[in-house]
Amino acid sequence: MSSMSASEITRLQVCLRRLLGSPELTVNPPPRAGLSVEVAVKGEIIGTVHRDEDEGEVSYALHITILEEDLPAETTATRARR
Predict the structure, then answer these.
(1) Cα–Cα dist 47/79, whole Å
(2) How far is CA 68 from the centre of its chain?
């Protein structure tokens, strides 16, 4: 995993806000070297971003974690779709 510069983090935040339609999304640098860059919405961490460089090409992988307890309650309609 490669570390990200402050400029990359800012550019990534602009891109993710546009792609995900969330102006309240923030991309936060790690508190110390070697940790993941965190993505948050309204201060709640929702995932991490990892930078990969292979043969001179850079890509970013976004991993979002959603806890089952954060999902809305199941309704009759959602059970019927299964």
Answers:
(1) 28
(2) 18
